[in-house]
Amino acid sequence: MEDIVYFDRYAGQEKTELVYGDQALRWTYGTTMGRLALAAVVRRTFFSKWYGWRMDQPSTRSRIAEFVETYGLDADEFEKTVSEFESFNDFFARRLKSEARPIESSPDRFVFPADGRHLCVPDLSKAGGLFIKGKMFCLTTLLDDSELATRYQNGSLLLSRLCPTDYHRFHFPVDGKPGTTRLINGPLYSVNPIALCKNIEILATNKRTITQLETPNLGTVLLLEIGATCVGSIRQTFSPETAVCKGDEKGYFRFGGSSTITIFEPGRIQFDHDLVEQSSIQRELYAKMGDHAGQILA
């Protein structure tokens, strides 16, 4: 299988992703025995719950310093020092200092909801594919609501993929008032491109949550969090029916790579040029939470 290449907005160049658990992923999704193990064990909730429990154990603290060094994380951004984390999951769901992720202040801009590698679809009715040209998941399946899918069938979509090495809290991309989060149960396949290139429908069928955000000038924005293999859980930290500001925390993932999906009503936004350009060739753009992702048109 080929390396995962993305475009780094800040470096202005292509980079190759250093994948946590690379060999295990390639075995699971690239071999017959691996696919059998995937069907029997890996995709199932009990496996991820067990792994999440394991990452909660105090003994996993010994892994943190090596992880930070191996993947080049900036420990100066963390609210806690490396020695203060109580477990690997505590480190994984870490908060950052507020100055580490400044929020784009322009009122006519919306922001990325999470650190990660991003792809956009400016018009879902003309989707050319995400990780592979011509391969797109079913919106009705994703939303588990045919009427909602019809309403957003010409809308705009932002997929934000978080690697295990990323900051794993997710935030609101615009101001608004969120409703109650709805859980849609499903399996827990990996959301790494190694898996998604085999089956893009993973994004639409994995365990996921959906929140409708009522906004002053964008109508209703749909905010989804997608579970994945070894994600212990998706935790929401916001209060429903309470107004939020752009960049406020919405929640966090426990251990594992995960994704968020943001869906806008038709004609409401315009994605940034570099995001559109990279997405048009099915290559992800790396950008941080709080950075501008596009312009509000309405």
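[next item in queue]
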Amino acid sequence: MSSVFTRIIEGELPGRFVWADERCVGFLSIQPLAQGHVLVVPREEIDAWVDLPSELAVHLMRVSQSIGKAIDAAYRPKRVGLMIQGFEVPHTHLHVWPTNSIEEFDFANVDQDPDPAVMDDSARRIREALVAQGHHDEVPQQD
């Protein structure tokens, strides 16, 4: 059975994508720690990040850094958080989000019901910042 992330990647479930290339995608978390919370997910279903081929792990980190720079430009937080946690979905994913304190790393604080209009705006802001960085080919066009 496909993971929920594979179903999002394949278009079976909706997603607000900010990045798409041949090896991975980036889309907004539906339960964000903060607005602008992106999940960077390999297209290949690999449960544990320690099982990633090294070259894919490096690619995911590079993409996460590019998205992190876009989040920084769009939100101007004190820091951009990065976490590999992976208990909810058995498909490696990197969390990248704007953060202003260590307390914002606690998944007990996620927004269970984010406003769809705010989510759309977050995706737009991050995509625009990625395009400004020169990532035209990797930024999907979405309404």
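[queue empty]
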